Each structure stands twice: as C-alpha cells, then as structure tokens.
TrEMBL record:
Pfam families xref list: COX2
Primary subcellular site in the record, as a coarse category: membrane
Localization in the cell: Membrane
GO cellular component: membrane
Domain of life: Bacteria
Enzyme class (EC, first level): translocase
Designated name of the protein: cytochrome-c oxidase
Keywords: Copper, Electron transport, Membrane, Metal-binding, Translocase, Transmembrane, Transmembrane helix, Transport
Family annotation (PROSITE patterns): COX2, COX2_CUA
InterPro entries xrefs: CcO_II, CcO_II-like_C, Copper_CuA, Cupredoxin, Cyt_c_oxidase_su2_TM_sf
Keyword Transmembrane helix applies: yes
Record keyword Plastid present: no
Domain Cytochrome oxidase subunit II copper A binding: 105-246
Amino acid sequence: MSILELFGLPENYSQHGEQVDQMNSVIHWLMLVLFVGWTIFFFVTLFKFWHKRNPKPSYSGVKNHVSTHLEIGVVIVEAVFLLGFAFPLWAERTDTFERVVANDPEAPRVRVIGQQYSWIYHYPGNDGVFGRTDNALISADNAVGIDPDDVNGHDDFISTTALKLPAGRNCILQLTSKDVIHNFAIVPLRIQQDCIPGKEIPMWFNPVKEMETSVICAQLCGEAHANMKGSLEVINAAEYAKWATSRSEEELAKKKAMALN
Ligand SMILES: [Cu+2]
C-alpha cells in the first residue's frame, strides 16, 4: 500500500495523475524525514543544555564561525535544488495549453459553469463551436445565456445532471462562474481549477479509463458550499460520440421547430 492510499487518496484515473502522486509521495516522505530529524535535534538540545549539566552559564557565547558557514551552505544547496531540479522538472511536467491543442485539435471541449450551488455543462454541439453567451440572456429556459441569434449556438446543448466525457482522449474544460469564485475539483483525476466570474479558464486532462465519480467544489462559496457536488461519467469514446451527436441533433430540431412557430 502506498503512503497516499494510507492517507485515503482514491485510485488515479488520469494520464498525468501518476506524476502528481509521485510528487505528493516524495513531499510526504521528505516531511517525515524533517519531522524525525528536528524532533531528534530538539531532544539532543534539551539534554545537552540541561541546567543540571551546565550549572554555570557561558557569558561569552559562541566564538567560531561554523554557523555562518553552515548557513551559506544551506543557501547554496537550496539554490541548486531550485534552479537545478525544481525549475527544469516543472517545465518538463507541465504542458502548455497551446501544445495540448496543437496535438489534438479535435479534443472534446465543454464549458463548465459554476453557480451557487450547482454545476452546468455547456457542450458546443456537432459544429464544435460554442454559441456566443451573455449573462444578460440567462433565464429559466436559457441556463447559460446562449445568444439565440448566433447560429453557432443552435446545436449547443446543456447538461445539468452529469458531465460526460470520453475515455482515452484529451478533454478540455473551460471553467467559469455566474456568481462567486468556485473550484472544480476531480480528485480521482488529480486535477482542480478555480472558476472565476468573467473569466474562462481552460483545464485539460486525459481520463485513461471509464469511471463514475463526483466532482466537488473546493472553494468555500457560501452556506450550501458543501452540497455543491456534481457527477462525472467517463464513458467509452464511441458511446460518447453517439450520445453527444444525438443530444446536439435533438437541440437543433427543437430550435428549428421553435423558429417555424
Ligand atoms: Cu463551493
């Protein structure tokens, strides 16, 4: 059993998750070593400077420069860690959004809109383009304010029950919020991102296999924050394509029928 499972972290389902887990694990072991080391130092100090062993205090204090040299040494070692290891590792392990999009221009995209206290998912439909949205257009029948005059939005569809995504693809979520700051956190995929009103922030990951999980809001956002749970279903890619196509066609037919009336 890994140290992370011991702390109750669920199984990983994303391509990048193993690297997050490795980092998490290294940090936990390092903290354990520091904890044990400083605890030993504490007791050694208590014993060494115990008043019964040193009945007469030293009035002159330390004369040599060992501590100065030690401190310079610590600065050098930390600089090597930061510049030689941390920065290059960060550059290697993070992927820029441009690179992700260039590698897979067809990557499925979903807009995720947080609101007190639920999540709404806006799919671009079969044309792959999101319709223009405007908060002023939000109403009971238009949960995310899609502009009815924008043709790109006619085949867009909304899901308020679950976020469905295909397994084994790079998925891009574009996160925003209608009211306050929320945070879309998917622990089994080892990813989370703040949803900020007025901004649309991309988040991307590759769910490696089919799964069902809950998504939680990880930013204290009001009195019912604890109830702000969504559900995520990662399904077979072919099944996903079939579902998304039919939902989009349904939506387009509905719009056409409305236009005829
Ligand atoms: Cu919240």
